[in-house]
Each structure stands twice: as C-alpha cells, then as structure tokens.
Amino acid sequence: MGRFCITGSSDGLGARTANKLISQGHTVILHARNAQRAEDARKACPGAETVLVADLSSIEETKQLAKEASELGPYEAVIHNAGVYTGMENVPGKSGLPTLFTVNTLAPYILTALMGPGAQKRLVFVSSDLHAGGRPRLGDSEDIKKSGYGDSKLHNVILAKAFARVWQTKAYSVHPGWVPTKMGGANATGDMQLAVDTFVWVATGGQTDGKGENEDERWTPGGYFTALREEEPSKTANDQSVQDGLLAALESISGVKVSV
Q1: Using omega within 30 degrees of 0 as the cis cutoff, is the peptide bond preceding 98 cis?
Q2: At 6, which helix (H) or strand (E)?
Q3: How many CB atoms lie within 10 A of CB 46?
C-alpha cells in the first residue's frame, strides 16, 4: 500500500478521495488552510495519518508546507486538489498577490518544485474542462497574476505536461466534472463518485479498488483525464514553449526554481 498527500482535503472531493484511498489500505496525509479547517479534515477523514496546515495564498506558508510534506514522504502520489473559484481573482492573499492565481497556479508549482522529482511516483493536478477557454497569460509578468478560473485550470494542465517532460516523471491532470461540492454548488449535475473514482484511478496509476496492475505505463506523459478515461486537452498545453514560459514566469514570481 502507498502513501498519498492531498492538498485541500478538509471537505469535498479532497476528503472523499482521501477516504477512498484509506478504505483501500493506503496512508493519507491531509492538508487544510488553517486550524479550524484542519479540525474539519480530521473529522471528515478520521483514518488519515495527519493534517498539515498552510494557507496556499501565502508563498512562505506554501514553502513551509513543501518542507513538512517532504519529511513525511515519499509518496505514491501528490494530489494538488486545493483551489478557489471565480470571484477570488482580485482578492489579495497573504502574500499580496491575487488569491485565485496564488492558490490555483502558483502554489502547486511551488510545492512541486520544492518537493522535487523524488518526492512522489505521480503528480496529479486538478483541472477543469473550463481550461479549454483559458489563456496562458504569459505576455508579461503582471498579466498572469490577473488569471481567471479557466486560465488557472489551463495552467494546471500545462504544469502536468511540463513536469512530465522536464522530469521524465508521471504527471497528470484531471477534470472531475461539475460535481456538487462547495465550489460546484448544490445544482451541479456531475457524478461525485465517478469523480472520486477517477482521482483514485489516476493517483494509483490505473488500479481499480486498490488492485491490479498499473496502467499508467501506457498513458500519455502529462495526460489529461476525466470519467476514468484519457482525453485530449487544449492544444495550447502541448506547446513546449508555453510550458517553458509558464515555468519561467512562476519561477520569477516565487523565486523557486525547478531542478533539472
């Protein structure tokens, strides 16, 4: 059985994914943004090993989270599930940058870059089909900070492809569907259980119910998944110059470099 680390796992898809992994006998490290949410996470996932606390709108707290998570690894997979939705584009986070950009794009970059290629067998970035309408926003150093939700979800797909290529590692992105979480809302029509099953399937390399051979040797490096199948994402994400441009922009903003 493996060890897994899931950001944003105090409720919703993160907590449900954690509980399914725990039910299969895996060890799970949770993450929450503050002490109250950490308590929520413990109640939602009583079988988890521990909960790490960090506000991902803070660059310094995200760096500390990378250190603490690394000390508890290595992992079968790190699942970058934490995210915020439309409405947070212009709300400053703890580091003064827009919360949506910092949490959805910058934080998973910082965590991945600082934890390094040896921290996990697989990287899983949570995306959305709304990435198809997103833009990389790499025109200048300020434009990317103005990213909307769709832009940030495109960044997540690009990050999976970039790390898969640069590190020659297993990195993927997942679209869970429009599911009834706090972010998705009560009127969402997607299948929550299918979304959880897809997260677990990708994080375990294609295993079903914790059993069977890994399928990910046959998957596209940096592949994009939804509903237990691989799909083709926006062509923009496959552009290596865009991938390199995003890594360079995030390095410039955070001061964190990707080791090669």
Answers
A1: no
A2: strand 3-6
A3: 9
Q: What is the pLDDT of residues 81-115, one digit of tens each?
A: 999 998 899 999 999 999 999 999 999 999 999 99
With residue 66 as reference, give the H or E element that holds it. helix 59-72
The mean per-residue pLDDT over the stretch 224-232 comes to 97
Q: Are 222 and 172 in contact (CB under 8 A)?
A: yes
Report whether 215 contacts 205 (CB < 8 A). yes
pTM of the model: 0.95
Nearest to 156 by CA among 125, 114, 195, 122: 125
Which has more pLDDT, 1 or 72?
Answer: 72
Q: Tokens 């995306």 — which residue?
A: 127
How high is the pLDDT of residue 178? Answer: 72
Higher local confidence (pLDDT), 185 or 165: 165
Structure tokens, 173 = 């992105």
Residues labelled as active-site residues: 149, 153
Q: Which whole-number Å values give the CA distances from 198 to 52, 102, 157, in the listed order?
A: 24, 26, 16
Place of tokens 């921290």: 119
Reported for 69-74, long-range contacts at CB under 8 A and 24+ positions apart, including other chains, are 69/5, 69/29, 69/31, 69/111, 69/115, 69/119, 70/114, 70/115, 70/116, 70/119, 72/3, 72/5, 72/29, 73/3, 73/5, 73/115, 73/119, 73/120, 74/3, 74/118, 74/119, 74/120, 74/121
Residues 71/42, Cβ–Cβ less than 8 Å: no
